[in-house]
Recover the amino acids of this structure.
């Protein structure tokens, strides 16, 4: 991500908010003359290893040409997707737009092969002085009115107004949604694609990198996890030989790493990848190892440290019991991560265990596991070979229980 702005435009606060990093602790890396301009600083925050941020301060004479040259060099076809710029935010204080102090020559950055969004920052600085007569005094409507005004100045350039103040949280979420749209659109000509085909673009290197690095939209995380699963192990889960002969511990271990990796939560101690957390999830789904379970045995898991339930030692076979457990592990883990992500700050064992305890004793888990057990028990074995019924059920359950819109 390249973020360019005049000084004091709030770009560092914006990066901190969207990516959940602390740019004040990020040291700019020395860029060699061959791959960056001296006026473009490269940062790789230690608290989000998927983010490479480039900052360029200034719209003075020659600055835009510096940015353009840097982008053209950075995105040369000889570079891999991971080395290229994935998007550009041009940050402009709202007051500069309102007072006409912003140089519209920024539009020279259009058409250089990188998705670009104009970001009008510090909306909170002008909001108290905005007449309440605008849009009837409603905050959301007034923000929209100003956004439309800014858009009118710059034609069809994607744009968003933002503030990092908590009361304007929805504006940050809207910026992330707009950035998501332009990155996906840039990955391929999407005008003729269905919504399902658009979603599958998340497995493209650039869109996946963006989906994983941002820490604002749970919907984006979930959709990315779904598409990674669809392209790998969820596909033909009941009929393929991907896991044949492996222990169930090995099977869910691979799946666990993929899902946790896509969510990329701020987890300084690596708890979400720890054996202890995997054991907890394994105990959550243990009731799916039997065809039915009484209400009295729907209790919270009490795993012994360093051990796991017996089912982890079983060899994977295409049978209902194994499939039930793997499906339950995927969906339960996704729901736990979705809940954990709602709490700000670093992931802690106590925070995660609180979420798991609440889930373990909830009617939501009971309903979910009953639905999994009922579905797997009624699908004829031959159906596993005809179509990806199990994978589609996993996706349906995640969308249903994470309260996502149906995008099939």
């Amino acid at each position: 991500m390249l973020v360019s702005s005049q000084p004091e435009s709030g770009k560092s606060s914006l990066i901190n908010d969207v990516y959940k990093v602390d740019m004040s602790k990020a040291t700019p890396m020395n860029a060699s003359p061959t791959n960056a301009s001296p006026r473009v600083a490269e940062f790789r925050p230690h608290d989000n290893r998927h983010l490479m941020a480039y900052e360029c301060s200034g719209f003075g004479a020659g600055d835009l040409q510096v940015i353009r040259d840097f982008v053209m060099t950075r995105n040369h076809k000889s570079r891999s997707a991971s080395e290229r710029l994935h998007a550009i935010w041009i940050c402009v204080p709202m007051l500069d737009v309102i007072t006409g102090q912003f140089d519209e020559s920024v539009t020279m950055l259009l058409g250089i092969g990188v998705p670009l969004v104009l970001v009008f920052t510090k909306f909170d600085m002008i909001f108290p002085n905005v007449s309440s007569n605008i849009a009837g005094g409603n905050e959301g409507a007034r923000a929209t009115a100003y956004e439309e005004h800014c858009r009118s100045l710059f034609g069809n350039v994607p744009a968003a107004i933002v503030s990092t103040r908590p009361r304007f949280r929805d504006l940050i979420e809207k910026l992330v949604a707009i950035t998501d749209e332009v990155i996906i659109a840039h990955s391929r000509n999407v005008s003729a694609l269905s919504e399902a085909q658009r979603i599958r673009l998340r497995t493209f290197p650039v869109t996946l990198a963006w989906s994983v690095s941002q820490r604002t939209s749970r919907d984006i995380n979930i959709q990315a996890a779904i598409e990674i699963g669809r392209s790998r192990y969820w596909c033909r889960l009941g009929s393929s030989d991907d896991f044949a002969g492996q222990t169930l511990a090995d099977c869910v271990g691979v799946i666990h790493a993929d899902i946790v990796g896509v969510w990329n939560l701020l987890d300084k101690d690596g708890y979400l990848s720890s054996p202890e957390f995997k054991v907890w999830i394994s105990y959550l789904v243990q009731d799916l190892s039997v065809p039915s379970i009484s209400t009295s045995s729907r209790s919270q898991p009490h795993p012994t440290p360093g051990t796991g339930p017996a089912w982890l030692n079983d060899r994977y076979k295409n049978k209902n019991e194994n499939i039930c457990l793997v499906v339950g592990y995927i969906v339960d883990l996704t729901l736990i991560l979705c809940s954990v992500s709602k709490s700000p700050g670093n992931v802690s064992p106590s925070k995660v265990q609180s979420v798991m305890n609440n889930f373990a004793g909830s009617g939501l888990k009971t309903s979910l596991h009953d639905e999994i057990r009922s579905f797997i028990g009624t699908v004829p074995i031959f159906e596993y070979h005809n179509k990806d019924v199990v994978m589609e059920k996993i996706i349906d359950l995640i969308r249903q229980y994470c309260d996502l819109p149906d995008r099939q």
In short: The longest helix spans residues 320-340.
